[in-house]
Design brief:
The structure holds 2 protein chains of 2 kinds.
Chain A: H1 2-15, H2 21-27, H3 29-56, H4 74-81, H5 83-114, H6 122-134, H7 137-147, H8 154-161, H9 178-203, H10 207-215, H11 220-248, H12 252-257, H13 269-277, H14 287-320
Helix pairs in contact in A: 4-14, 5-9, 5-11, 6-9, 9-11, 11-14, 13-14
Chain B: H1 2-33, H2 37-42, H3 55-63, H4 66-95, H5 103-114, H6 122-131, H7 138-146, H8 151-162, H9 166-174, H10 179-190, H11 192-207, H12 211-216, H13 226-236, H14 241-275
Classes of the chains: A mainly alpha, B mainly alpha.
Chain lengths: 321, 276
């Protein structure tokens, strides 16, 4: 990271004329001093880790001393050949698919509803829907796990009492229901943020444009289709990226509630990496392997993000046409 | 007109049940925290406890060490907020100086990292903090938490300082104030609204953080924050529901109260992130 600040500094003597050099540098000396803390903190804890992961991934390393046992691409071969990794990656992807195809549209519908000034108590509704966002994921996740407990948990008691099921459903303990259950909790937890994103986007639709549409006799659906959505689309892409990024990095909920189980049915890549690097039950951490898994995950994420780009552009063009 | 009013009010039939289900986990949490373990076992559906007790809170607070975890969480969150405020405001101020060479590169790197997945940075982060000798302290965890959280605050401060009229700064300089003094005495006080937003968002973010505090307290349970402590409590005893509910209240209620008082700032901060 230090390179990013050194580069502009070095550029000055090379690029500038000799007469202007010292003056220009001295003029900005204080500014560069002011940037040092940010460069150190951000460089040390964001940029450097991104680079170092690559370096570590070529070693067989348990974290003791400096990495010295160079293994080339062996870690990558192992990651790419491991079914457990691909399973975790698929689950991470499922989290983002749920966020994109369930949470995003539902939040838009509610945002359109709550954006109407005639709706009474709309601020209260917004507040309630936002509340899960401010609660610690790990904590509220455990509270919900208790509510879903098969032995006496509230949800199962209601299901049994009303006769909807004969036997208690082990929501988080069975391999078939654990992932959908976690997905639902995740949507519930993140919904409020996405709702606020959409409300912010809807506020950018100019009032006179809406009024003009109303005067022209456009009904609700036509106004939505030809006024609201075209204005909102560019912001929608930012929202999509933000939601995608957040959901792909799901860790807290899975680790706290199921630890990736039962039988790895809810394992996601961050919990996968955590298990190989930090799990206390591990005999020796495998930093090199875990780093390789992280690098592969980063690359795959990048690919998935880029794959969305042409699709989005087409949608954007189509929406405007 | 009446039909319109009816059609509009019909939405409440949908929204009220939705909201009740939505906040039910919170309501249950508070209710269960005051119930006796016996009442919980019998399993009445009533939300009002038969005989309210504070035993659960006492158990969570002392036996499960949530007093320590609360203190740790407050320390950790305040450290993160101070770090982010200081570092982001100085950097934002410097980046708002007109004609600063290298500004574009730096801002470009900042924005680019927003779109690179962070999931895989935890191992080197852990090693850097250990290398600094801060591996077993909350300061190390605070540094690791604050680093990646800097991008949006830096951009917010930069945007704000860029918008301040030049005359103000020139006037300060005429009065003999240097760079440092202008920043500290003139510009920073003007930036109070931005500071408020940044402080609140990072306070809530740090309070709710889990991954970083978890990794950095693995070797030292006395440094756990509330989220990690809850995870440890649940791992040890999955059946003490009333105790867990009380512990959850200790972690969640303070931050919800903070949010309720300052919700406007917080919501505007989130909305601002999208708009910019």
């Amino acid at each position: 990271m230090t390179t990013t600040v050194e580069r502009p500094l070095e550029k000055i003597p090379v690029a500038g004329t000799s007469r202007r050099r010292p003056g220009r540098f001295r003029k900005h000396l204080w500014s560069y001093l002011f940037l040092i803390p940010m460069v150190l903190l951000f460089g040390g804890f964001t940029v450097w880790p991104m680079i170092a992961s690559w370096w570590y991934s070529f070693f067989n390393w348990d974290g003791v001393g400096t990495p010295s046992d160079w293994v080339g691409l062996a870690n990558f071969r192992e990651v790419l050949g491991a079914d457990s990794f691909w399973r975790a990656f698929w689950h991470s992807l499922v989290f983002s698919l749920a966020a994109i195809f369930v949470e995003l549209p539902l939040a838009l519908v509610l945002a359109i509803l709550l954006n109407n000034s005639w709706l009474r108590f709309r601020n209260l509704y917004r507040l309630v829907l936002f509340l899960p966002v401010v609660a610690t994921t790990a904590v509220i996740g455990i509270v919900i796990a208790i509510l879903l407990d098969p032995a006496g948990g509230l949800v199962n008691r209601i299901l049994l009492d009303t006769g909807l099921v004969d036997q208690p459903v082990n929501f988080l303990g069975s391999t078939s229901t654990a992932l959908p259950t976690l997905l639902s909790i995740d949507v519930w937890k993140g919904f409020g943020i996405t709702l606020i994103y959409w409300l912010a986007a809807l506020q950018t639709v100019p009032k006179d444009l809406q009024e003009a549409a109303a005067i022209d006799g456009a009904g609700f659906w036509r106004a939505l289709r030809f006024v609201t959505l075209p204005v909102v689309t560019p912001i929608a892409i930012v929202i999509l990226l933000l939601v995608f990024q957040r959901s792909l990095n799901t860790f807290d909920l899975v680790r706290a509630v199921t630890e990736g189980g039962p039988d790895y049915a809810t394992d996601v890549v961050p919990t996968y990496i955590y298990r190989y690097a930090f799990d206390p039950s591990l005999q020796a951490p495998r930093y090199g392997f875990a780093s390789a898994a992280g690098v592969v995950f980063g690359l795959l994420t990048l690919v998935v993000t880029l794959l969305q780009a042409p699709f989005l552009r087409r949608r954007l063009g189509g929406g405007k046409a | 007109m009446n039909r319109l009013v009816l059609r509009r009010n019909i939405w409440h039939l949908l929204l009220i049940p939705l909201c009740l289900v939505w906040i039910y986990p919170f309501v249950w949490m508070v209710s269960a925290a005051f119930k006796t373990p016996r009442e919980m076992l019998i399993g009445g559906l009533s939300l009002l406890p038969d005989e309210a007790t504070l035993d659960n809170f006492a158990r969570a607070w002392t036996t499960a060490k949530f007093s320590t975890y609360t203190a740790n969480t407050i320390t950790f969150s305040i450290a993160v907020v101070i770090l982010v405020l200081l570092v982001a405001s100085t950097a934002g101020y410097a980046l708002a100086r007109p004609g600063l060479p290298g500004k574009k590169v730096l801002v470009g790197v900042l924005i680019a990292t927003m779109f690179v997945p962070h999931g895989y940075t935890i191992i080197p982060t852990f090693i850097v903090v250990n290398g600094l000798g801060l591996g077993n302290g909350l300061l190390g965890a605070a540094l690791a938490q604050a680093g990646p959280a800097l991008v949006v605050p830096v951009l917010l401060f930069m945007g704000f300082f860029s918008g301040i009229p030049k005359e103000l700064e020139e006037a300060a300089r005429m009065d003999g104030a240097g760079y440092l003094r202008t920043y500290w005495r003139v510009m920073l006080p003007l930036a109070k609204p931005v500071m408020g937003t940044v402080a609140l968002m990072n306070f809530i973010g740090a309070w709710n953080a889990f991954f970083i505090p978890l990794v950095f307290t693995l070797g030292n349970p006395d440094l756990r924050t509330l989220g990690v402590g809850m995870y440890g409590f649940y791992g040890q005893d999955t059946t003490d529901w009333t105790g867990l509910a009380a512990a959850a209240c200790i972690s969640v209620v303070p931050i919800v109260v903070v949010f309720l008082f300052l919700q406007r700032t917080f919501v505007e901060g989130i909305a601002g992130a999208v708009k910019s």
